[in-house]
Amino acid sequence: MLGALEDPAPPPTRRGAGSGRPGKAEAAQAAGLLSSRGRYRRNGRSRQVRRGFQPPPLRPCAVTEPQCGGRRHPEPHPGHRGELQRDRDRIIHSAAFRRLEYKTQVFINHEGDLYRTRLTHTLEVGQIARTCAQALGLNIDLVEALALAHDLGHTPFGHAGQEALAERMAGLGGFEHNIQSLRVVDDLEARYAEFDGLNLTFATREGLLKRCSPEKAERLGAVAARFRDGGQPSLEAQLVNLCDGIAYNSHDVDDGLRSGLISVAECRETALLAPLFAEVEAAYPGLDERRTIYEVVRRMIDAQVRDLLAESEARLDAAAPEDLAAVRRRASPLIGFSPAMAERHQGLKAFLHERLYQHFRVARMVHKSRRVVQALFDTFLADPGLMPPQPRAAAEARAARRGEAGRARAVADYIAGMTDRFAIDEHRRLFRPEERT
């Protein structure tokens, strides 16, 4: 079945037939906006005509193909697709993307089959971000690439794994999953004969960095210049950052309720969720709890998306940035929630932190996860020979150039690339004598 963006093109309109006046499709084709196959051309690609809804044109301040900044290693133009589409496709086909299926969002993979993983989280971010990008007239290909790559550098066991690695890497260069995502696409993916990494465009690489210290920005160079010199990222990067928050707040509520670690009664205490529960119960009296939760979660996403679009449209209309450079010069983001929604969004985050992320069962998972990551790091750093040949060779090469800090970085790269279950298996192989090595 064709998806929403793949509806067959409608037949040419009959309006004006016989009167010498062209219909909409004929007029669009004559203007060069519509190909002979009934596809609207926008953003360097064809888009099929859709009944009812038509996406707005690309904003002058959105990122265009000529502005994507090129690649670290020059390559011929892909020809049949755009440069940013190539970025997106390379991300989807990467090993790091596949590993997200078995990396923790909140619940470790073996806790249950229906809880979100890093992969399902990533796909939900992509869906929300694509919808918003289309409504705002932003570059959908760049938004998709950023959404799909934003968590490639995440460790096993979610934030517990990141905190454990950051603790061990203190004084040795530090660890932050956001910068690690850039390392993955720049250096760690080993797929191509002519270069390391995925060789993505500058626009995608720069958009992956959400935060960075001035010291690290100096080392990273142009891709992190805004953290050193000030300014904003592209509108597309701003959008994905907000959609990431919408997705994880919403699905963490869903997973928290499914697990029984938070209750509907507790959720009613939040300013964002209370009116949504009341709305669903008024519309559907007697609806079972599972469906009630789903109806509330979908309304929660919708309310945040609608607010984000309205507020961002208002900011863009007021600022009227004439091009991408004007967006970058801004002192504050142009994509964002209204003050009222931002307060409700932050209130929900605080609720989840207190009631879900600090629940004793989650705390136990975090405790075990941190111990696994810490033990792996300490053991491999002390004896890199215990690692498989490829990460061991990387540790030796980096140690030759940068000493212990180089060896530690290679160990962190190896651990950060693990899935939850691979990390657990490695821990067993190292510390349980009865396990095969």
Automatic annotation (TrEMBL):
Assigned keywords, A-Z: Hydrolase
Listed Basic residues bias regions: 38-50
Keyword Ligase: no
Gene3D superfamilies reported for this sequence: Hypothetical protein af1432 (1.10.3210.10)
Every HD domain range: 118-249
Domain of life: Bacteria
Skewed-composition ranges (Basic and acidic residues): 72-87
Start and end residues of each stretch annotated as Disordered: 1-87
InterPro entries per UniProt: dGTPase, dGTPase-like, dNTPase_2, HD/PDEase_dom, HD_domain, PHydrolase_assoc_dom
Keyword Magnesium: no
Record-stated family: Belongs to the dGTPase family. Type 2 subfamily.
Name the record gives this protein: Deoxyguanosinetriphosphate triphosphohydrolase-like protein
Organism: Halorhodospira neutriphila
